[in-house]
């Protein structure tokens, strides 16, 4: 992996990336890492760093760098939605590019909304709701999965609870293209507390649903 990619993933100051840009030019920002999905330092910085790195990218490479997509069609906003440390990059990108970037699908149909439901917290979902409303949580992505399916893959059930509170418990039994629901995915990825909570919402018969 090229040096700029390593720096973008590490807990270091953005000045380290700035030094590399000054030394090797802005081309290092958009150079793929050789993987099939071709991540760039911009993508990795959005996933692992805070908004100060995005500001540096814009200053050095221009606004166009913020719209780069990889081979899977994932944009910088998609990667920012996978940032488990902070949603500051995602917020900053929306401020710069507009809220439309939240619902741009990758080549599988997944959006930043889907990914935030799995990788970030309730505060992010509440912020997304304020930006574009709640209909975005019903958008279908890969395998016809909605934000509910993605939230059910999160290690805790905080986002799933929030989505049910906002949109109703019917969302727990919406099937994907294979027939799997948020109930199926929660049983795989979450704990007993989540299953007990689901039982209180819709009863135990849901655990007999075939996927």
Automatic annotation (TrEMBL):
Keyword Repeat annotated: yes
InterPro entries attached to this UniProt entry: Ankyrin_rpt (IPR002110), Ankyrin_rpt-contain_sf (IPR036770)
Stored SUPFAM superfamilies: Ankyrin repeat
Keywords: ANK repeat, Repeat
Record carries keyword Cell membrane: no
Organism: Macrostomum lignano
Name this polypeptide is given: ANK_REP_REGION domain-containing protein
Organism classification: Eukaryota, Metazoa, Spiralia, Lophotrochozoa, Platyhelminthes
């Amino acid at each position: 992996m090229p040096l700029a990619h390593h720096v973008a993933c590490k807990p270091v100051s953005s000045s380290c990336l700035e030094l590399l840009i000054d030394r090797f030019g802005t081309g290092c920002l958009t150079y793929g890492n050789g993987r099939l999905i071709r991540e760039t330092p911009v993508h990795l910085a959005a996933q692992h760093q805070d908004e100060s790195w995005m500001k540096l990218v814009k200053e050095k490479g221009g606004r166009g760098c913020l719209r780069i997509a990889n081979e899977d069609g994932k944009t910088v906003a998609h990667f920012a939605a996978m940032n488990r440390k902070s949603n500051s990059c995602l917020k900053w990108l929306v401020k710069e590019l507009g809220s439309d970037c939240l619902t741009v699908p990758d080549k599988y149909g997944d959006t930043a909304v889907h990914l935030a439901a799995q990788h970030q917290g309730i505060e992010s979902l509440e912020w997304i709701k304020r930006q574009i409303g709640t209909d975005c949580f019903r958008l279908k992505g890969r395998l016809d999965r909605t934000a509910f399916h993605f939230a059910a893959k999160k290690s805790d059930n905080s986002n799933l609870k929030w989505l049910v509170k906002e949109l109703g418990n019917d969302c727990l039994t919406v099937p994907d293209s294979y027939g799997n629901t948020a109930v199926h995915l929660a049983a795989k990825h979450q704990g007993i507390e989540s299953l007990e909570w689901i039982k209180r919402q819709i009863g135990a018969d849901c655990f007999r649903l075939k996927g």
